[in-house]
Amino acid sequence: MKNSKEMRTWLDDMQLDHPLVIAGPCSAETEEQVLKIAHELKDTDVSYYRAGIWKPRTRPGNFEGVGILGLKWLQKVKAETGMKTCTEVANRAHVELALEHDIDLLWIGARTSVSPFIMQEIADALAGTDKIVLVKNPINPDLSLWLGGIERLHTAGIKNLGAIHRGFSTYEKTKYRNIPEWQLAIEFKNKFPDLPLINDPSHITGNREMIFDVSQTALDLNFDGLMIETHFDPDNAWSDAAQQVTPAKLVQIMKDLKIRKESDPEAEYNKELTNLRAQIDVIDNQLIESLGKRMKISDSIGKLKKEKNVAVLQSNRWNQILGAMILEGESKGLSEEFVLRMFKAIHQESINHQEKIVNN
Ligand code: PEP
Ligand code: MN
Which CATH class, in words, describes the domain spanning 266-358? Predict the structure, then answer.
């Protein structure tokens, strides 16, 4: 992974000595709520105050945002606290209104970045702006779609760009609201090393208890900042109640996070090492996850074999797998000996699982 940046970005110009922090409520609810949270965040590491004005909800009938009224509240936030402001835009009309109200940073949400039509409409509406524009990953894990949206903005002459990783939707039930698929974010960073990449642990976890851990992983993977939903009364928030933290909790999280600065050669080495190790951890977790899934399928095969009274060990099938995997491993630089040993271990575990089922 490239660590040394070649281009100065809007984020470098901010000269922060800590990761960028964007915080504020999921939704602007009332003027009092917006201002109260802003004042509680005023003297913290938070540089940008967020609040959703137009809320794209999965099902109609839920709170859908206060609309243009909220832009005026954000202007008040800036006047009263000095914090810069940001909100989500999802079409041309939103862009025009946000620019009219001098919102400093606009982000494009996960339900918008899936659509090249809308991304082009927004790019055209923003053409030539010097506002900061951040693109959230699309809800489905499609790197090209994410990159494509950013390229549309770049082509429209938007210079101050960045991205937000907010996890991906999946049919599978996991402990996350949106699974991080860290590998994809790492790939993103490799493709665009100069583009600031912000992590959104709130929408990844959906649960305030997990925000610290996901934030730490993000920083270990060299993310440039965090966007964390913050509310003075999270449980009674009008949207995303389970994932919001109080301003005091946010300050505690920022204090506890290990932030690795690039200052001397030793620190640089440690940072690179931590980053590579974090990548290894991601892959090791994927390996265990995949092996667990493989054994579940193996269990189903065990049940089938039991019904049909078929022997657990099918040598032909096993030799086929082994041959194919040795070839596959070779193409990835893995020795035959290693692939053999690994697959023997996997196969043995599979047999143990099936034996248990067949003999039960
Ligand atoms: C949000 O940031 O409040 C939001 C709606 O996020 P996402 O687009 O990631 O779902
Ligand atoms: Mn939200």
Answer: mainly alpha
